[in-house]
Amino acid sequence: MLFSLDFEWLADPLYQDWLLEGLGTTLAITGVGTILMLIIGVVGAAIIHFNIPVAKPLTIIMIDLFRNTPPLVQLLFLYFMLSDLGMSYTDATTGERIPLLSGFACVVISLALYNGSIAIEVIRSGINSVPRQTVEGGISLGYSRAQIFRWIELPIALRLTIPNMTSNVVSLIKTSAQAALVAVTDVMFYATQITLETFLNLEVMIVLWLIYLVITTLVVLLAKQLAKALTIPGFGAGAMK
Amino acid sequence: MNTPPCKPFIEVANIYKSYGSIAVLKGISMTIQAGDVACIIGPSGSGKSTLLRCLNGLVSVDRGTIRVDDFSVELLQSEKELVPLRHKVSMVFQQYNLFPHKTVLQNIMMAPIQVLGHNKQDVHERAVKLLAKVQLSGKENAYPGELSGGQQQRVAIARALAMQPEIILFDEVTAALDPEMVQEVLNVIRDLASEGMTCVLVTHEMRFAQQVADQVFFTDGGVMVEHGAPDRFFNNPSDPRLKSFLAKVL
């Protein structure tokens, strides 16, 4: 069986186009998702760190809600809830009802919220491991709490948490495959299309598997370079071996 | 040094501080003249470090008044109000408390630029001079983690001086150092003292206190037991607690 694998479909320009287009969509989802995830992580960690009334309990509820439920359920909920709430507009020329948030937007938002909730906790753990003395040094020099967060706690925390944050980005990339379920044409979507036309389920999935492996490996290598460049000499375990 | 008695630069009157049910300071008073070197000695847990931290508002007092030059420290609440005080009063810590992710030069330059809003070029010039003063020229781009304890502590002193303070507080700055590094740090403090900087030290270096101090304070159990000029203080102590403490440490 193993030796009768058929990869001739890979030579088909149509399928090549599909895979490349799908890959582009996957990279766009994960790129935008990662940026939003980091923003949510920093803002959420700051809200909890500064004990901001009302916002803090809401943030904690958000973390529990998104971190402790399946991301696929969140995505489908978001997708159906938003269209159910009537968040759509009518195209003036065609009279067609178009959802305000596309499937693409839903996928990006759901990934940003799910992995962002994890990012908040990751960054918070980093902030908590900044030595108390370092903060005291800042206070004695006249820094405000906000300045200490911006110039001392956050830069150290982000460096210390590069390994954990990398796992979070990899998780986001893997979870993005669920985009196909809300009809977003990512690489998973097109791979499924190809299997429907060629019936070469195993071969297509092997290729898909390798595509994800290459993306995540490149991200991990990039993160290692970043960690190396940002290592604090003689301090903690910021660098990845 | 030994200026004639005028309006004291630092005046602490009857301050109280408790952490929960533990009373750390129980009515401490002291005065320090401008340009003086004051050493605070005493057994561990006697409130020395807390007293020092009250002087720049790192610790707020429950009762009593603290005047540093024109500032009523106990009345300063917000971070903004405290900035001018932090400008005037710098602090050096036992654990150096440097910023590990910044180079030596950045550690020294950060606060004057970001807190005081000084011109970057001026601060850079000042930082290079200060590094020369603490004999660390050439270490500008090293990170704190790459330096020895004594070198880190000298960077911390340079960082404190970059704020152009009028008073520097030293909190057991040699307690975490090897004996041979203690001397290099003490020499820097000695130079500062001879230049007329007002220094308040919490220290266990009795010989240093004896040589350099203008006034020595002895705290025990949260109260000021005895104070005076080092000659009389070390050679002719009157309080039995101070006598027994000196007998142990000298």
The secondary-structure element order of chain A is HHHEEHHHHHH
Can you tell me the number of structural domains of chain A? 1
Number of strands of chain B: 10
Strand content of chain A: under 5%
Subcellular location (chain B): Cell membrane
Protein name (chain B): Peptide ABC transporter ATP-binding protein
Membrane topology (chain B): Peripheral membrane protein
Main location (chain B): membrane
List keywords for this structure.
heterodimer; A: 241 residues; mainly alpha; MetI-like fold; B: 250 residues; alpha/beta; 6-stranded mixed sheet; 4-stranded antiparallel sheet; 38% helix; 24% strand; globular; transport (chain A); MetI-like (chain A); cell membrane (chain A); transmembrane (chain A); membrane (chain A)
Structure description:
The model of chain A is unreliable at 237-241 (pLDDT under 50). Chain A contains nine helices and two strands. With 241 residues, chain A is mainly alpha-helical. Chain A is flat and about 70 Å long. A two-stranded antiparallel sheet of chain A has the order 1-2. Chain A has helices at 13-49, 55-67, 71-84, 103-128, 132-140, 145-160, 162-175, 187-198, 201-230, and strands at residues 88-90, 97-99. Chain A has one domain (2-230): MetI-like (MetI-like fold), CATH 1.10.3720. In chain A, helix 1 crosses helix 4, helix 4 packs across helix 6 and helix 8 runs antiparallel to helix 9. With 250 residues, chain B is of the alpha/beta class. Chain B has nine helices and ten strands. In chain B, the strands form two sheets. Chain B has a six-stranded mixed sheet with strand order 6-7-8-3-9-10, with helices on both faces. Chain B has a four-stranded antiparallel sheet with strand order 2-1-4-5, covered by helices on one side. The two termini of chain B are 26 Å apart. Chain B has helices spanning 48-55, 79-88, 104-114, 120-133, 149-162, 179-194, 206-212, 230-235, 240-249; strands spanning 10-19, 22-32, 37-41, 63-68, 71-72, 89-92, 167-171, 198-202, 215-220, 223-228. Helix content of chain B is 38%, strand content 24%. The interface between A and B is medium-sized, with 24 and 31 residues.
